[in-house]
Amino acid sequence: MMSPDVAAAEAALLDRAEIDATQMRQTTGEYRDLTIDDAYVIQAAWQEIKLARGEVLVGHKIGLTSRAMQASMNITTPDSGFLTDRMVFEPDTRLVAADFCDPKLEIELAFVLNTDLAGDDLSADDILDATEYVVPAIELIAARSFRRDPDSGRTRTVVDTIADNAANAGIIMGGTKVAPRDIDLRWVSALGSRNGVIEETGVAAGVLGHPAMGIAWLARRYHEQGLTLEKGQIILAGSFTRPIDIRAGDDFHFDYGPLGTFSLGFN
User: Fold this and answer.
1) 4-266 belongs to which CATH class?
2) Any idea where the domains of the chain sit in the sequence?
3) pTM of the predicted model, to two decimals?
4) What DSSP string describes the chain?
């Protein structure tokens, strides 16, 4: 297991890369034998850096929930990251593209919990019982490490991504909140448009068969560590589209049908 001091040093590099919006070398470029467990230690150290300067933990994200994305990263499980209050952005506003490293958007649903949630064998029904409401959400992703290292040519791995807080940079929630049993969440669909052109479409069942199942996976992983998902936390359940690239000047529109629409722009 990576030592706390080394993890903290690596987390500090990722933090600086995020602040400067400048990509850095991959973590596995320096530590070739890094494991997924080590990567989560680095991620936890980065969370502590953010909390120490006043950010507040508000939830978690789940990624790599589709078979295609797992196959592309040569893994068989999702990954996860943390969300703080400074990573929550308002819908129908504009952000600055240059503030983020290689930014992209993904179309998802967010669950807000009405009770603490823990257990190693939770079902979709258990997750719905623990959910206050579900709302359309967009994940802003930004990779702080190079996809391909300019010096070595090494390709970024899932270990690098996990250390990098699963590439999360923010969340935008919009549209209409819905009680978790008011509709069949598997059939929530969305259209993602950039500059008036539909770039991605998807249906929420693409997330492990039901968007609640990624949360069951996360609760199980936390349960193994003696941790709990907490009442009031936002859980970003996983993307059911491919990422959409962001460029300065882009205007995005997201249409979730009965669950409403919202927009986001980038200067």
Assistant:
1) alpha beta
2) 4-266
3) 0.95
4) ---HHHHHHHHHHHHHHHHHT--B--HHHH-TT--HHHHHHHHHHHHHHHHHTT--EEEEEEE--SHHHHHHHT-SS-EEEEEEGGGEE-SSEEE-GGGSSS-EEEEEEEEEESS-B--SS--HHHHHHTEEEEEEEEEEE--SB-SB-TTT-PBP-HHHHHHTGGGEEEEEE-S--B-TTTS-GGG-EEEEEETTEEEEEEEGGGTTTSTHHHHHHHHHHHHHTT--B-TT-EEE---SS--EE--TT-EEEEE-GGG-EEEEEE-
